[in-house]
Design brief:
Layout lengths: L14 E5 L3 H10 L5 E6 L24 H10 L3 H7 L4 E3 L4 E4 L7 E2 L4 E3 L3 H13 L4 E5 L1 E8 L6 E8 L6 E5 L2 E4 L7 H7 L7 E4 L4 E8 L10 E4 L8 E8 L3 E8 L9 H9 L5 H6 L3 E2 L4 E3 L4 E4 L11 E3 L5 E2 L7 H18 L6 H24 L12 H16 L4 H11 L11 H10 L10 H10 L3 E2 L1
Parallel strand pairs: 1-2, 1-11, 2-7, 4-14, 5-22, 11-20
Antiparallel strand pairs: 3-6, 8-9, 9-10, 12-19, 13-16, 13-17, 13-18, 14-15, 15-16, 19-21
Helix pairs in contact: 1-4, 1-8, 2-8, 8-9, 10-12
The structure holds flavin-adenine dinucleotide.
The site of flavin-adenine dinucleotide (FAD) has 36 residues, from helix 1, strand 2, strand 8 and helix 8.
Organism: uncultured Coleofasciculus sp
InterPro entries: FAD/NAD-bd_sf
Protein name: Putative secreted protein
Length: 476
């Protein structure tokens, strides 16, 4: 395991506790191992079997895209992880070349790029990372153990550990001390209540809800299928359809097919309804592929998809010894695939803050202010898109937001015939480049020039059919 530059002060005998052994907790654990003599990772679920799905992560059966930036960060934290994923059967995907992507009006061009990654189930990714961490002698994993609250100093100015409960032991509450506690318990985090019981304000929350619902099913990839693509995305487009779907390849020659509907247009979870929803997308390609494919799972549903940011960075005061990370701080509409990558960015921010200064007074607020800087871009990307829908609650797009949306509409139409622009756009989506690159002078000029031309307003089904049957052209 690579060490991210060890801080000499960290050679103390201090302990850190991480609550929650999902992606954010695992990645935080990875960096804390470089700063603390002991890290205790506490997970409510039984995670002793590495590759099983579990109730604490109800989102895991749904398609989980690890963006290219996330892939790169995980490789930095766990060198060789990509190769391990390949060994476990995860296909390598070059996102702009291997993917059929239905644009606003037609299939996107396909082109080579360095935007690549491994496509795999969420369970495999999490399981491999946990196994890696368990090789570390200074990690203790408490599995089947629930944190019930925080321990604090008599003045309530310092969190000094946690109260925990072993789920198999009746009613026994134990205490465990730590110099730093990291809350990685996801969107249902009860940290605001725990802080309130110590006399602190709850963080203000911003919630923007597009009321997207998912339904997903796993399939065996048909053995006789000949295709020059690995996956498919047919997205919902405001003003055209609230329905979208993705076919996502994973280890074991399987597909996860996730259907989604915005504005409470939820996909059904019965077999006939699921297939009918797939048929109703802008192109019936998923339906054509699924109707004869072998299902491997029930149909899973998920509807808690609102963006929610708990603004710890805005609080006037926080006790020392406690920070939150991952979905416990900021959760995004999952359709943009940002959660795991942002969790990795959060862990790297924690590492950077600990290197700057090992837990001085005021560390939690300092960390949360730096984390907020990281969260701004993915938050604007997700909520800016969600605010297009009149059914979205909580968003108040102003005139400049509308202008940006119209500008980006032009960009997305132009990139349908422009692989270079498509690549730039994909780099932004994969969080490799900031959205500002889409406002570079050469792109602005292309957009301005397009104002003289009429953009397409509809696409004929036959045109889609032809493009589907031949597959899109790969330009290398
Ligand atoms: C439907 C859906 C699809 C998604 N798709 C993508 C995608 O394509 N790409 C992407 O990057 N992200 C995606 N995400 C987001 C991604 O799943 C999360 O952002 C990511 O897993 C980080 O979550 P987390 O670790 O912060 O929290 P969680 O994954 O929610 O984990 C919280 C953990 O804490 C444990 N826990 C909770 N309370 C306690 C307690 N009191 N004591 C001990 N343990 C506790 C839970 O058991 C769980 O293990 C998706 C999310 C959803 C809902």
């Amino acid at each position: 395991m690579m060490h991210l530059m060890t801080n000499p002060i960290a050679a103390s005998s201090r302990r850190a506790i991480v609550i929650g052994s999902s992606m954010a907790g695992l990645l935080a654990t990875r960096v804390l191992l470089d700063h603390f003599a002991e890290v205790v990772l506490i997970e409510r679920d039984d995670v002793s079997l590495p590759l099983q799905s579990r109730s604490g992560v109800p989102q895991s059966p749904h398609a989980h895209v690890l963006l290219t930036q996330g892939q790169r960060l995980l490789e930095q934290l766990f060198p060789g992880l990509a190769a391990e994923l390949t060994d476990a059967g995860a296909p390598t995907v070059e996102w702009t070349a291997d993917w059929l992507m239905m644009g606003r009006w037609k299939w996107m061009p396909r082109c080579a790029s360095d935007l690549s990654g491994r496509a795999c189930s969420r369970t495999l990714l999490e399981g491999l990372i946990r196994q890696r961490l368990l090789a570390s002698p200074n990690l203790k994993l408490f599995t089947g153990c629930q944190v019930e609250g925080l321990l604090s100093s008599p003045e309530s100015d310092q969190v000094t550990g946690v109260k925990l409960h072993w789920r198999k032991a009746a009613n026994s509450i134990e205490s465990l001390d730590a110099a730093l506690v990291v809350d990685a318990t996801g969107r249902n985090s009860t940290l605001p209540n725990w802080l309130a019981s110590m006399g602190y304000d709850a963080p203000p929350e911003t919630v923007i809800n597009a009321f997207l619902g998912y339904a997903s099913r796993w399939y065996q990839r048909p053995k006789n299928l000949e295709a020059d693509w690995q996956g498919i995305t047919i997205s919902a487009v405001e003003g055209i359809t609230s329905r979208g779907g993705v076919l996502y390849p994973i280890e074991g020659d399987r597909w996860i097919v996730t259907l989604g509907g915005v504005g409470r247009d939820y996909p059904p979870t019965d077999e006939a309804g699921f297939l009918e929803f797939a048929r109703s997308l802008r192109v019936p390609l998923l339906y054509d592929l699924l109707k004869d494919a072998q299902p491997l799972s029930p149909i899973y549903s998920y509807r808690r998809t609102e963006n929610c940011w708990r603004h710890y960075e805005r609080l006037q005061r926080l006790p020392d010894g406690i920070v939150a990370i991952g979905d416990a701080v900021c959760v995004f509409n999952p359709v943009y695939g940002q959660g795991m990558t942002t969790a990795a960015l959060g862990a790297i921010t924690l590492d950077r803050c600990l290197k700057q200064s090992q837990l001085p007074k005021g560390f939690p607020l300092r960390f949360h202010k730096q984390l907020a800087q990281i969260l701004k871009t993915p938050w604007l990307m997700a909520t800016g898109e969600d605010s297009r829908w009149s059914t979205t609650v909580g968003a108040k797009p102003g005139r400049s937001d509308r202008w940006v949306q119209k500008y980006l509409d032009r960009v997305t139409v132009l990139m349908q015939d422009n692989p270079v622009l498509l690549k730039t756009f994909a780099e932004v989506v994969h969080m490799v480049k900031p959205p500002t690159v889409l406002f570079a002078p050469n792109i602005v000029l292309q957009v301005l020039a397009s104002y003289g031309k009429r953009l397409p307003t509809e696409i004929k089904v036959t045109e889609i059919g032809r493009q589907t049957s031949t597959g899109a052209t790969v330009q290398r």
